[in-house]
Write a structure and sequence with these properties.
The two termini are 27 Å apart. The strands form 2 sheets. A 6-stranded parallel beta sheet has the order 1-9-8-5-2-3, covered by helices on one side. 26% of the residues lie in helices and 16% in strands. By secondary structure, the chain is of the alpha/beta class. Strand 2, helix 2 and strand 3 form a beta-alpha-beta unit. It binds 6-phosphogluconic acid. 6-phosphogluconic acid binds next to loops. 6-phosphogluconic acid (6PG) is lined by residues 48-52, 79-80, 92, 142-144, 148-151.
């Protein structure tokens, strides 16, 4: 079977000052959800974890943006989760619940968290895969300073997974293990937004957007076709060349 052509050129790259990033991202995301729900009646979205999304989700939960989304038509998923209980400080679900989900009228049955607390992460991953739609309407992703995205870390065996869509990932102690979407989920998502903030990400941003296509070393390059929203601190090493 012909290998699917991987898109290696970057999608639109939006640079903004750090203070504006949460508002711009929240406006972009709620706009994407609104368009999809108007066009197809429902919208599936996978949220990103980590620290960057919190102020974005907080803005999505407040007027005027919260009123722009028919939350009863939205189904929420997660791109990854730490292997901790949902009330743990490291839980991506807890962060999204506190900053967004508890504040909007989304039916609880429409929020699908990854059960990171389960003793068998592989079973939890397989169960989550059965919940995940064949392709997400909107996928939000962040990026670590090492170029990881979701919990797809550089040189991870998970990057070679061609069939499964959700996988357990081990992490060096004391970090908790993870459960993550696989490259296929990124490949099949309809709309992707990658949000990156902070000077510590600048080198990886420049490598991802202006360097050679090497997703095993820079997993975030799997999302190059998406829209990238980068604050000026994270954009400072960009030289303006498109590979
Ligand atoms: C996670 C995220 C991860 C995150 C990056 C950036 O579970 O941590 O899914 O991929 O997006 O590590 O994290 P920060 O936003 O905290 O810099």
């Amino acid at each position: 079977m012909k290998q699917r052509e991987r898109v290696t050129r970057a999608g639109p790259v939006i640079r903004c000052d750090p203070a504006s990033l949460p508002d711009i991202a929240a406006t972009w995301i709620t706009g994407a959800i609104d368009v999809v729900t108007r066009l197809q009646g429902r919208c599936t979205i996978a949220l990103a974890g980590g620290a960057t999304p919190r102020p974005i989700y907080e803005r999505m939960a407040t007027a005027p943006l919260a009123g722009r989304v028919a939350w009863d038509r939205v189904a929420v998923y997660f791109g990854d989760e730490r292997r901790v209980p949902p009330d743990h400080p490291d839980s991506n679900y807890r962060m999204a619940y506190e900053s967004l989900l508890r504040h909007v009228a989304i039916p609880i049955a429409s929020v699908h968290r990854i059960e990171g607390e389960r003793a068998d992460p592989d079973a939890a991953a397989r169960d989550y895969e059965r919940l995940l739609p064949a392709s997400l309407d909107v996928l939000l992703l962040g990026m670590g300073a090492d170029g990881h995205t979701a919990s797809l870390f550089p040189h991870s065996p998970a990057l070679a997974e061609g069939t499964r869509r959700v996988l357990p990932v081990d992490r060096p102690a004391p970090s908790p293990g993870r459960i993550t979407i696989s490259p296929r989920v990124i490949e099949l998502a309809h709309t992707i937004l990658v949000v990156v903030a902070g000077a510590e990400k600048a080198a990886a941003v420049a490598r991802a957007l202006e360097g050679p296509y090497a997703p095993d070393a820079l997993p975030v390059q799997l999302a190059l076709r998406g829209t990238w929203l980068i604050d000026e601190d994270a954009a400072r090493d960009l030289r303006g060349i498109v590979p």
